[in-house]
Amino acid sequence: MKKNVLFVCIHNSARSQMAEAFLNQIAGDRFHAESAGIEPGKLNPIVVEAMLEAGLDIAANPTKSVASMIERGPYFHHVITVCDESSAERCPVFPGDGRRHHWPFADPSSFTGTPEARLAATRVVRDQIRERVVRWSEGGAESS
């Protein structure tokens, strides 16, 4: 049976979307990942571009709210917040008894500079998220 995983951040426009896509790609045989935010916005186009470079098209993904996930009522075995440390106090809490994890990543919406500089910084975050998803899904998921 697949374990349900929810990735949560502020806007569901970048980090949680990337983590959802990577877990479904890397370990979709064992996990079903979704993502949500407390203030859903629009997908960050630079994140969409960075994910396309990694072979994943998230352009059509909707942004979802934590409230809608609570209303829908699925059970999540793992709830993983991906807010950066400076936003940790705003990072939502999801009810239920699933295992809780916090993986802090920088927020691509906070990056400044040229589009190329923002894309380069987003690639770093994308690669950090992919690495963390791989490590967790290959061993840490069952022990954490």
Strand order of the main beta sheet, please? 2-1-3-4
Low-confidence stretches: none
> What class would the helix/strand composition place it in?
alpha/beta
Mean pLDDT: 89
Query: Level of helix content?
Result: 40-55%
Q: From the alpha-carbon coordinates, what is the Rg to the nearest angstrom?
A: 14 Å
**Approximately how much beta-strand content do the residues carry?**
15-25%
Number of helices: 4
| First-residue to last-residue Cα separation | 18 Å
- Number of E-type strands: 4
General shape: globular
Largest sheet: 4 strands, parallel
- The succession of helices and strands, N to C, reads EHEHHEEH
Overview of the molecule:
With 144 residues, this protein is an alpha/beta fold. Helix content is 40%, strand content 15%. The protein is built from 4 helices and 4 strands. It has helices at residues 15-27, 45-53, 66-72, 115-143; strands spanning 3-9, 31-37, 78-81, 99-102. The model has no long low-confidence stretch (mean pLDDT 89).
